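dude i think i finally got it to work??
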Amino acid sequence: MPLDPAARCAPGTRSTPTARPASAAPSRARDLADRAAELDRRMRPDPRPGAHKVVVLALDGVYPFELGIPHRVLGSADGRYEVLSASVDGQPVRTDSDLTVTPGHGPEVLAEADTVVIPPYALSPAAAAAPDPRALAALSRVRPGTRLVSICTGAFLLAAAGLLDGRRATTHWALTDYFQELFPRVDLDAGVLFVDHGDVLTSAGAASGVDVCLHLVRQDHGSEVANQVARCCVVPPYRDGGQAQYIERPVPPASGTGTGPTRDWALQRLELQLSLGELAAHAAMSTRTFARRFREETGLSPGRWLTQQRLRRARHLLESSDLPVERVAHEVGFATATSLRRHLAAEAGVAPSAYRRTFRSSGPAAGGAGEAAEGP
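look at this
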């Protein structure tokens, strides 16, 4: 029976204790324990046969919060992922906090992984420039074609292994100068939440690990599954990878002069060709002030934000409807189907038709993000 404090102690009434049988308390405790166990089974079901195997490599000094993100997020995807933890030598790992963790596996499990996640770890100057040889040896066990994901300082290990040379990547904004000094061959972008190259993904600090893991679910299984996972984890379902790491004014000012109401207004009119002038007029600001405040509050320009919202809605329509691509483009505010194809290819690496084939079923079709972009 659900607990309902409001029903037991409604306004204007006085709760009167009643006698209970001696067995009531133990029975209620068992009931609560059973419900907690059922919730745990629903949130963290056993992996399905053939589930995508994810191995999280815990290095010395690992940050406990980020270490748990892949288990919490990917493990909530209804058994679609099997998430394991490993250390470089199969031994317990000291964290950056006052505790030690014992991963369930040694480095040999990396050879079986479909995805390997490197969570952040405490860096000393020596460790950043020359990581533990055991960590590099463990990483060498990874099979070619395995997807690699770093969170925060995990990018330092990937860079030291030469896996980011010539690629765009990111890490925590506070470490960017040091990273660039150590790894000049990496095209570091310090202003984004994550960068996706398909086979290698790098993300910024802390909560961006949640963003990149939800992005993996969305890429593998579509927005509907990713949204279910986000609801289960009680986190926002989507933050664009290109959003700024550091937002000067994350909450609109108390005076109510922020851009939030105008963003809500625009979301109801995405099919229209909204100009900066129209957005600024709705917010009763000059275009210059509106653009500045918009970026302070969202980390994005108004144009970039509109494109992001249109792509989100387009992906939903491609997954949930049979509308022609041209109609989808019109419904979400892209001027032409060609424009939708171009933007979707830049974001997801696929054409609309390929995206629809992949995500109209419960699991990804063969090919997925590797399909060539559709022509205009």
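The mean pLDDT is 84.
im so relieved honestly
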